[in-house]
Amino acid sequence: MVKKWLNIVYKEKNSTRLKKHYREWADGYDSDLKEWGYAYPSKVKQILEKYITVKKGSKILDAGCGTGYVAEVLKALRYNNIVGIDYSKDMLRVARSKKIYKKLVCESLSKKTSLKGNQFDLVICTGVLTSGHVGPVAIKELIRLTKNKSHLILSISEAIYEKLGFKKEIEKRADEISKIYISKPFIALPNHKSSARSRMYLFQKI
Ligand SMILES: C[S@@+](CC[C@H](N)C(=O)[O-])C[C@H]1O[C@@H](n2cnc3c(N)ncnc32)[C@H](O)[C@@H]1O
User: Fold this and answer.
1) Which pLDDT belongs to residue 131?
2) Helix, strand, or coil here: 170?
3) Residue 190 sits in which domain range?
4) How far apart are CA 105 and CA 89, in angstroms?
5) What's the total number of domains in the chain?
6) What is the mean pLDDT of each run of 10 residues along the chain (206 residues)?
7) Confidence (pLDDT) at 144
8) N or C: which end of the chain has fewer CB within 10 A?
């Protein structure tokens, strides 16, 4: 039976069960997302080419990196100092096989991580700040990990931006991050009928 992974993972409310879903989906994730026309990689690329200058050797954190699908774009742009963090060791296994990351860390983003603060020149988090995954609480941690004056690129879907408290959390942190660019809403998975509409958010840590 072909499982409807998109509906399964975004409807799941329990983090332990979600991890089990990703265990099962890990090997099929890339081909599914490719088929569904995953828009985040090209949106990240666009931001890096158009809105900010990030030097090639810069230390980048891919937060909730999954299989490294988005990091493939970073590799193609010749970034080579990338750290990935994700709580699913099965998604990390696929990411590791791509040999893109300097380091992969298996930890949750829902609490303070063991990573040293104020160390990344860029933090990217796509498809993670969403229902059933990681809530607004992670924004504080992502900011902590970012160097002063450096950037964060986040995707957040429209339907949950206010509902789950992302808007409030971002507003609360106005003295820590400033908004540089917010994209127009776009369909994250254009070839999937249940896809969410999302926006890309680019912040600079103050
Ligand atoms: C839809 S995938 C996105 C992966 C990757 N960023 C991408 O754009 O392809 C969501 C990822 O979030 C991870 N995740 C979910 N909850 C998490 C948590 N509490 N801490 C860390 N990672 C989590 C999952 O393991 C999964 O790899």
Assistant:
1) 87
2) helix
3) 5-205
4) 9
5) 1
6) 84 93 96 96 97 96 98 97 98 98 98 98 97 94 98 97 97 97 97 93 98
7) 98
8) N
Q: Is the pTM of this model over 0.85?
A: yes
Amino acid at site 69: Y
* 112-117 own/partner pairs: CB under 8 Å, 24+ apart: 112/141, 112/144, 113/85, 113/141, 113/145, 115/61, 115/83, 115/85, 115/145, 117/144, 117/145
pLDDT value at residue 194: 86
- Tokens representing 95 are 């990411």
For the chain, report the end-to-end CA distance as a whole number of angstroms.
49
Ligand 1 binding pocket, CB closer than 6 Å: 15, 18, 22, 40, 64-66, 69-70, 86-88, 91, 108-110, 126-128, 133-134
Q: 149 CA distance to ligand 1 centroid (A)?
A: 26
Give the count of beta carbons closer than 10 Å to the beta carbon of residue 162: 10
The torsion angles phi and psi of 180, rounded to 5 degrees, stand at: -100, -40
Which helix (H) or strand (E) segment holds residue 164: the answer is none
Annotate 38-68 with b (16+ C-beta within 10 A) or e (fewer).
bbbbebbeebbeeeeebeeebbbbbbbbbbb
Torsion of CA 47, 52, 56, 61, to 10 degrees: -70
Q: What is the pLDDT of residue 78?
A: 96
CATH number at residue 200: 3.40.50.150
